[in-house]
Specification:
Number of strands: 0
Strand content: under 5%
Helix content: over 70%
Length: 449
């Protein structure tokens, strides 16, 4: 199948895809409706204040809304080199629409992108279960539903951040390379170029996963000159060129404007700005761990936040089951780093899911495909838990790794005898139903309030 041909929906995928599409439409609609008149104001300027005061969900950024609304760049293009290129045409169209009809369409544009990405994440994950792992249709459907019932896989399917786009690209990479491994075919240098360009372009850490996928698919053939030059080096050179062009053409001029605005605000409201800056610094200091150093890289790493508590409450906790207290609050503003569950049952559910994950690894560890995903998982564990990058809100990165849980469980389903297989399927059905009701209900409650 061609790279574009994989976007064609197959007959057996339609019911699952349509069902979850309705869910994604509903949640995106609730998010936009929560502050509809504010979000769609067509006033020129002031978009940063307008969006940041009214949108706050677990630390996810609304920079895409701000960029599409007024071409203010608040995200780091070094870490997301293709994101600005992706948003710029939408800004041009939206800028024309604001002038023409006086309405800001940024939230609608991003909702369309988020829904598209969530929809195809479902399709590609289903194909991983069904075609790569050769699970039964009911099991592939169940495990896909299980993945999207996780709290911080469902939330990215509605917030204006890049995480669900990354999931779509990573799941597409899994599907393509998984089928290559299954059929004994090589990933071509040009296929690697396309996959690496888009995955790394959305988030540079994704590029490492795509390169690992190529290594597992091709083995020693990964190290041919053609593959290394076209499939590895060229996409990164293209991304560096794009990022640097954007930096000098758009970011540098903007920085001068922003510094001037900040200077004027300080002169007009010196005491107010100083008080706000002091309170913000005090909050961040109290809710941020000790950094590894004063350099650019060192400041991003956390050496003091407890890893054990992070695993229980945030990495395997909040990622899968949202906490009832401080629901969807932002650790940068109004949420403690650690929040405990109100119900003991939440910890029991978490323990069961982790246990099933470990059992699944035990059944599938000989699979080259699962071995590849374990190296991906090791990248995330190293980056977030060992080095401490983003550890205070590690759950917002869930969409980049949580797919390994249902995939590992899929290997257990595939390997068990009929009776224990039926028992496991029943447990998974109950878990999936519970998580959809629990997480979906909490998110809906938050948005409706």
């Amino acid at each position: 199948m061609s790279m574009l041909g994989i976007f064609k929906i197959k007959k057996e995928e339609r019911w699952l895809a349509v069902a979850l599409l309705v869910v994604f439409l509903m949640f995106n609609g609730l998010l936009i409706a929560s502050h509809y008149h504010t979000y769609t104001m067509g006033a020129h300027g002031g978009f940063w204040t307008l969006f940041t005061k009214n949108f706050r969900m677990s630390g996810y950024d609304n920079w895409s809304w701000i960029t599409i609304s007024g071409m203010r760049i608040h995200f780091e293009t070094v870490r997301h080199p293709l994101y600005l290129t992706f948003l710029y045409p939408l800004y041009l169209l939206n800028h024309w629409l604001i002038d023409a009809v006086g309405m800001n369409f940024a939230v609608w544009f991003m909702a369309a992108i988020i829904i598209f990405s969530a929809f195809y994440s479902v399709i590609f994950m289903y194909r991983v279960f069904r075609e790569v792992m050769e699970l039964k249709r009911t099991d592939a459907t169940l495990l896909t539903l299980l993945l999207f019932s996780f709290g911080h896989v469902l939330v990215p399917a509605m917030v204006p951040d890049h995480f669900i786009i990354s999931l779509m690209l990573l799941s597409m990479t899994m599907y393509i390379t998984g089928m290559k491994m299954k059929k004994g075919h090589l990933l071509t240098a040009w296929q690697s170029l396309v996959l690496t360009f888009f995955t790394a372009g959305m988030a540079t850490s994704n590029g490492a996963k795509t390169l690992l996928a190529g290594l597992f698919a091709n083995g020693r053939r990964f190290f041919t000159w053609k593959y290394l030059l076209i499939g590895v080096l060229l996409p990164f050179l293209l991304l560096v060129g794009i990022q640097q062009s954007q930096y000098y053409l758009l970011e540098v001029p903007q920085q001068a404007v922003i510094h001037n605005i900040e200077k004027v605000n300080r002169e007009k409201n010196a005491k107010k700005v100083a008080d706000r800056s002091r309170k913000r610094s005090e909050w961040l200091k109290a809710h941020t761990g000790k950094s590894a150093g004063d350099g650019f890289i060192g400041k991003l790493m956390d050496v003091s936040t407890p890893r054990g508590k992070t695993l229980v409450e945030n990495f395997f906790g909040e990622s899968i089951q949202l906490h009832q207290r401080y629901l969807l609050k932002d650790v940068s503003w109004d949420r403690p780093v650690f929040v405990s569950y109100s119900w003991v049952a939440n910890y029991v559910i978490e323990a069961i899911i982790v246990l099933l994950f470990l059992i699944g690894i035990g059944f599938g560890w000989r699979s080259r495909f699962l071995q590849m995903l374990l190296t991906w998982f090791a990248c995330d564990v190293t980056l977030h838990l060992i080095l401490g990058f983003g550890i205070n809100e590690v759950y917002i990165m869930t969409a980049g790794w949580a797919f390994i849980i249902p995939i590992a469980i899929g290997y257990a389903l595939r390997s068990l005898a009929r009776k224990p297989q039926r028992m496991l399927r029943s447990v998974l059905t109950v878990l999936t139903a519970y998580l959809w009701i629990y997480n979906g209900g909490q998110i809906a409650l938050y948005l409706l309030q």
